[in-house]
Design brief:
The complex is a heterotrimer of chains A (312), B (277) and C (417).
Chain A lengths: L1 H52 L18 H7 L2 H32 L6 H13 L2 H12 L6 H7 L18 H24 L3 H9 L4 H29 L3 H6 L11 H10 L4 H32 L1
Helix pairs in contact in A: 1-12, 2-12, 3-7, 3-9, 4-7, 5-7, 7-9, 9-12, 11-12
Chain B lengths: L4 H30 L21 H9 L2 H32 L5 H13 L2 H12 L8 H25 L4 H8 L4 H12 L1 H16 L3 H6 L8 H6 L9 H26 L2 H8 L1
Helix pairs in contact in B: 1-12, 2-12, 3-6, 3-9, 4-6, 6-9, 7-8, 9-12
Chain C lengths: L1 H17 L1 E7 L4 H17 L3 E7 L2 H13 L6 E5 H9 L7 H5 L9 H7 L9 E7 L1 E5 H6 L9 H13 L4 E3 L8 H12 L16 H15 L12 H9 L3 E6 L3 H8 L5 E4 L12 E9 L6 H12 L1 H11 L17 H11 L6 E2 L7 H17 L5 H22 L1
Parallel strand pairs in C: 1-2, 1-3, 6-7, 9-10
Antiparallel strand pairs in C: 3-9, 4-9, 5-7, 5-8
Helix pairs in contact in C: 2-13, 2-14, 9-10, 13-14, 16-17
The chains are: A mainly alpha (312), B mainly alpha (277), C alpha/beta (417).
Chain lengths: 312, 277, 417
């Protein structure tokens, strides 16, 4: 019995170890699988279809359209001054919005990180802008900037920022700042709350230990706070940049891309091409270029993050 | 304690006041327009408070419109999306944080790419995908789409919170005989309560105020959410600002309630760090 | 027991045989209008037992995108409200049912005014929709500002218009004209351009556009000068619908050109002694060319109940229903008999009927059946007109760009046929 049982026992042990190893190797997949499945089912297929439009002559509600035209749209795009204008505006829009949102959000998070009476209420109040749907927020701000019905032009004039109580949104050179201000108002809570949650996860004793060692507030911020915040900062900045680059709601509602296309960004340009010129193919080509640019940006950020982490 | 005592607190409160005023002023304007009677809307537009106030807009929204239905739909969709997204994202975020596995960067890339393509271009394919499944004109369809769209961001957010927790904690627990999932559930997750709260809060609000998919995928008023209801105030030749702002103010209430609920977990950090660190 | 089972079975059989659901989509939605629609629909349902109509109301600001997405995915209605700008698109896509056979058999067809029939046949000279009303432009003016500036009556000619605008712009904080420099402003450019050119012909027989002709350029330059000389508010370069009416309601600008359906909104916000309506001022040729838009009801080819659909369209749009409908909607009626209705001789609507009866006020149909017109009106015109107003390009340049685009589109349309 024992002579025969040993190979069986050994096989059983081997089989158990094999399943054990497979289970361990499969673990990460099990954690990530549900999300991946959902994404593939709902978003991947439409995304791929949307990308293929860029290479076909797809026109809305035109039964004759749909033939394959290769890189024709991209050639058209390269020669299109409206595209380059929109690209320039997209950069201004994104950089200004993200920088201001992040900077002000970080300051607010630091302020909220200290315990003070009424903190819970203040937290709620500063979070409220995020809860307003973007289109209502756009209408509200357009109303505020309109000298006929809103106070801002008069205040701006009183502060000396504007020469006359005009509507900032009609100014050919500075109109983009209207939606940027509205976007910053709307987006500060995102950074503030996320960074606050990250700050709250830093154990208090590390600060105390550093204080005992004689480190001043600025040193503590640089050596403790920033490294702890780094992963959260990286991901929030990356995602927010990607979202803002694609976020045309406020612009469409407040200035409709005008005056004279001075506030047109790629995302609103895509919408115009798709639903006014009814050229889904061209719109998709512009979207593909935007996608490529954002991917390049994401990769650059990842590389930067890896370099910084290796150094520290 | 940390900085120069009184001056630092004075600066602290001053800056906070600035932020609060900046955040609240447009909301105050929302409120002001919502109680302004229609005939004074344009004539007295610039005043800080109308000469005559009225609650007729609120009355219309609550009693004569379909807003109670829209709010109910929004609450259902937003809460369900928040819960499902957070569940999926916690798992995926943990997977990203703790493991290096083949295909990891492909999955991360997939998640990123889905955030980068303008939604306008994929509305039509998604509609065509959901229609034969009977998921258009339904709240379920919306929840599925919203969850799919929010999971990437939520996963990355949770990943960054998990990254801040040293790996040795669950390694220690696993050495003691617990399997990884138990360690995950019992030790790691409670430490990331602020992160969970933040994620829940954001996904809830994102789903609450989302307009594009709610508009395009659902047509009947029985399945419309509140942002779609707001759009109905914009007709061809007039915008009913009074009612729209009133509905906007009312819509802040569920978000406030939800936020108050998760706030307790958001600022748990100080005590949690001291006890478990 | 058997009898009751049989009875129940009969009931169920009857129900399933007779119950049809028609899908009706309205697009120029407003809450009050939906109520009127529901009343008309209920009357129809009572007259046709077993028929149920499911109304889908799309918000106008996103109606085009939403409806186009639905149709391209196969989610088609039975009856839909069809605005003038959408008509040629859906006809060319093969979605709309030819209504000529139905019109040929209908007793009320002879009561349709000539203009209504012309409009019904706007695309391919075939009736693809039954119009329910006309939207004719007229001049709204602020009586109080006029009195303040010492002007006795609304302007009858373009020169008077300019003089009046100048007098009003002298008043502190006020302007003469609520210029719509942003989206939707094309109609005003066309009206002023045509008045100066002395005609409203858009295309020469070979398909080339007339917009680069000297007369039209004088017209657009005239409008650019209104802005440059400060007779319109400085912000108006980017004003859309919301802003021009906000300017008018608040008394910031005194004159506004709008359709009759804007009257309802204006009447809610201003008292009758504060505003008036006048026919559009005439150009040097002695004629004015107010633009006219329209909307109607169409039946989708994919519908399985076309006869029932036609019954529904009739219920919504026969002379009796049309009167009820237009009272709510504010469009001008399509039936000859409607002109006698007492509702249309009210003080406010008189302005439009004056226009209609004056032979020198020539209602002008825009070339909305031109493929690519939407892009022209909503994108090209907006951008170039704003550039012209800001002085970045000259009016002649702007007209040339318009003419080039329209010529290309028209010639493509002519050859495609």
């Amino acid at each position: 019995m024992t002579a025969q049982a040993r190979p069986m026992q050994r096989r059983a042990i081997w089989r158990r170890a094999y399943w054990r190893r497979t289970a361990v190797a499969a673990e990460p997949y099990l954690y990530t699988l549900p999300s991946v499945l959902l994404l593939c089912a709902v978003m991947l297929v439409p995304l791929v279809i949307g990308l293929t439009y860029a290479f076909h002559d797809v026109r809305l509600l035109d039964p004759m359209s749909g033939e394959f035209i290769g890189l024709e749209h991209f050639r058209e795009l390269y020669a299109d001054p409206a595209f380059w204008n929109a690209l320039r505006n997209t950069v201004t829009w994104t950089v200004a919005s993200v920088t201001l949102q992040f900077g002000l959000g970080l300051i607010l998070a630091l302020l909220l990180n200290r315990l003070f009476p009424g903190r819970a209420l203040v937290q709620l109040l500063v979070f409220l802008p995020w809860a307003i749907p973007s289109f209502l927020s756009g209408l509200n701000w357009a109303w505020l900037f309109n000298p006929v019905v809103g106070p801002l032009p008069y205040w701006l004039k009183a502060l000396g920022v504007m020469a006359a109580a005009d509507n900032l949104l009609s100014h050919p050179r500075h109109a983009l700042w209207g939606p940027i201000i509205a976007n910053v108002w709307w987006g500060i809570p995102f950074f503030a709350i996320t960074l606050l949650a990250a700050l709250q996860s830093i154990p208090a004793d590390i600060y105390e230990a550093a204080a005992i060692d004689g480190a001043g507030p600025w040193v503590r911020f640089r050596r403790i706070t920033l490294p702890f915040l780094a992963p959260t900062m990286a991901i929030t900045i990356l995602l927010r940049t990607v979202w803002i680059a694609n976020f045309a709601d406020l612009i469409v509602i407040m200035t409709k891309g005008g005056p004279a296309d001075s506030t047109q960004i790629l995302s609103s340009y895509i919408f115009t091409q798709a639903f006014q010129r009814l050229d889904f193919g061209y719109a998709s080509a512009v979207a593909t270029v935007l996608l490529a640019l954002l991917l390049a940006y994401a990769m650059a950020l990842m590389v930067l993050r890896a370099v910084l982490m290796r150094r520290s | 304690m940390e900085l120069q005592g009184k001056w630092s607190w004075a600066l602290h409160y001053f800056l906070l006041a600035v932020f609060v005023i900046f955040a609240l002023f447009p909301l105050f304007w929302l409120l002001k327009v919502s109680i302004t009677p229609n005939d004074l809307l344009y004539g007295e537009g610039v005043r800080l408070w109308p000469s005559r106030s009225t609650f007729e807009h609120y009355a219309s929204v609550i009693a004569h419109s379909q807003f109670p239905l829209f709010f109910r739909n929004s609450v259902i969709v937003a809460a369900t999306t928040a819960i499902f997204s957070t569940l999926l994202a916690t798992a995926a975020g943990y997977g990203f944080s703790r493991f290096q596995f083949r295909g990891k960067y492909w999955i991360v890339g997939l998640m990123l790419v889905t955030q980068m393509f303008p939604l306008v271009m994929i509305i039509a394919p998604i509609f065509r995908l959901l229609k034969p499944l009977g998921l258009t004109n339904s709240l379920t369809g919306l929840v599925i789409v919203y969850t799919a769209f929010n999971v990437p961001f939520a996963s990355f957010l949770m990943q960054s919170f998990f990254d801040a927790i040293p790996k040795d904690l669950e390694e220690a627990a696993m050495l003691d005989g617990a399997n990884r999932f138990a360690a995950f559930r019992r030790i790691i997750v409670p430490l990331t309560l602020p992160g969970l709260a933040a994620t829940l809060g954001f996904v809830f609000t994102a789903a609450w105020s989302e307009l594009l998919f709610a508009l395009m995928l659902n047509s009947s008023s029985a399945t419309s959410t509140f942002p779609v209801g707001l759009l109905a105030f914009v007709s061809k030749f007039s915008v009913d600002f009074g009612q729209m702002m009133a509905a906007g103010v009312l819509a802040l209430l569920p978000v406030c309630i939800f936020f108050v609920f998760i706030q307790r977990y958001l600022v748990q950090g100080l005590t949690a760090g001291a006890v478990k660190g | 027991m058997l009898k009751s089972l049989l009875f129940a079975a009969c009931l169920i059989a009857q129900q399933s045989r007779a119950d049809t659901t028609l899908k009706l989509v309205e697009v120029l939605t407003s809450p009050e209008r939906t109520e009127t629609l529901q009343t008309l629909v209920k009357a129809f349902e009572m007259q046709n037992p077993g028929t149920h109509v499911e109304i889908t109301s799309l918000a106008w600001s996103s109606a085009f995108e939403k409806f186009a997405t639905m149709v391209s995915a196969g989610d088609t209605p039975d009856v839909v409200e069809m605005p003038d700008r959408w008509l040629s698109l859906y006809v060319k896509n093969g979605n709309l049912e030819n209504l000529e056979p139905y019109l040929a058999q209908w007793s009320e067809t002879k009561d349709l005014s000539d203009r209504a029939l012309e409009i019904a046949r706007a695309v391919d000279n075939t009736a693809y929709h039954l119009p329910y009303g006309l939207y004719l432009r007229a001049l709204f003016y602020n009586k109080i500002l006029f009195k303040q500036a010492g002007i006795a009556a609304p302007p009858k000619t373009m020169d008077e218009f300019r003089d009046d605008a100048k007098k009003i712009s002298v008043l502190p904080g006020k302007s003469g004209y609520c210029l719509r420099g942003g989206p939707g402003g094309l109609n005003a450019w066309i009206m002023f351009g045509a008045a100066m050119a002395g005609n409203n012909i858009f295309f020469k027989p070979d398909g080339s556009s007339t917009l680069s002709d000297p007369g039209w350029i004088v017209g657009t330059a005239w409008m650019v000068n209104l802005y440059k000389d400060g007779l319109a508010p400085r912000d108006s370069v980017n004003w859309g619908f919301n802003e021009i009416v906000a300017g008018f309601y608040s008394g910031t600008c005194a004159m506004l050109d709008q359709d009759s359906d804007a009257l309802i909104a204006i009447a809610e916000r201003m008292k009758p002694d504060q505003y008036g309506v006048a026919p559009f001022p005439k150009g040097p040729s002695g004629k004015a060319y107010p633009t006219v838009g329209y909307a109607g009801w169409s039946i989708f080819k994919s519908s399985l109940h076309k006869d029932l659909d036609w019954k529904l369209v009739k219920a919504l749009d026969d002379p009796a229903a049309n009167l009820v409908w237009n009272k709510r909607v504010g469009a001008l009626p399509i039936y000859k008999s409607a002109a006698q209705a007492p509702f249309y001789s009210s003080e406010q609507l008189k302005g439009w009927f004056q226009e209609l009866s004056d032979p020198d006020e020539v209602p002008t149909l825009m070339p909305t059946n031109l493929p690519g017109f939407a892009y022209f009106a909503d994108s090209l015109v907006v951008r170039t007109s704003q550039q012209a107003l800001l002085g970045q390009i000259s009016p002649a340049d702007m007209n040339k760009q318009w003419a080039a685009y329209l010529t290309k589109a028209k010639q493509k349309q002519l050859s495609g046929k």
